[in-house]
Amino acid sequence: xxxxxxxxxxxxxxxxxxxxxxxxxxxxxGEPSIGNLVKDAxxxxxxxxxxxxxxxxxxxxxxxxxxxxxxxxxxxxxxxALYSSFFFFFFLAELLDNWMPRWLAFLIVFAxxxxxxxxxxxxxYVLFRKVRGPKKTIxxxxxxxxxxxxxxxxxxxxxxxTDGEHPAxxxxxxxxxx
Length: 178
Prior knowledge:
Keywords: Membrane, Transmembrane, Transmembrane helix
Number of helices: 3
Structural class: mainly alpha
Organism: Gordonia aquimaris
Strand content: under 5%
Largest sheet: none
Number of strands: 0
InterPro entries: Phage_holin_3_6
Mean pLDDT: 78
Order of helices and strands: HHH
Protein name: Phage holin family protein
Shape: elongated
Transmembrane segments: 73-92, 104-128
Helix content: 55-70%
């Protein structure tokens, strides 16, 4: 049965599958098509981004473990210092007891502790008042639309510049609202 029977293809008859004479992924003159170039570029950027994220994770995991161990030890040291301070202030009151009545010595130590608490609370309050938002990050994010392709101001009202410099970001469509 060397000849093909009617209704039988060359592949069915045991011959090798046919090889296309041209690559379907290439355009004219054997050059890659635009679609394939875009697909390859997108895949390359995606691979690069994933590789960078994996590298950052690998570097940060070890450093995070070190930072976690250091933080844990600092917390333990802080708790021990806090417990030790009780004995220091009790010692201070007993020391003052040598020159004044006992109740007055403990009252003075109590007043010192209240004064330290008030000063620390005030300094903390002042530091919190100085906290500001990430101004550079906000400015950088506002500039992103100006560097994206196709984001140049057009006649559309959604992209007209609001402050004379940057176009407004159009609102996203909410499918729930119709």
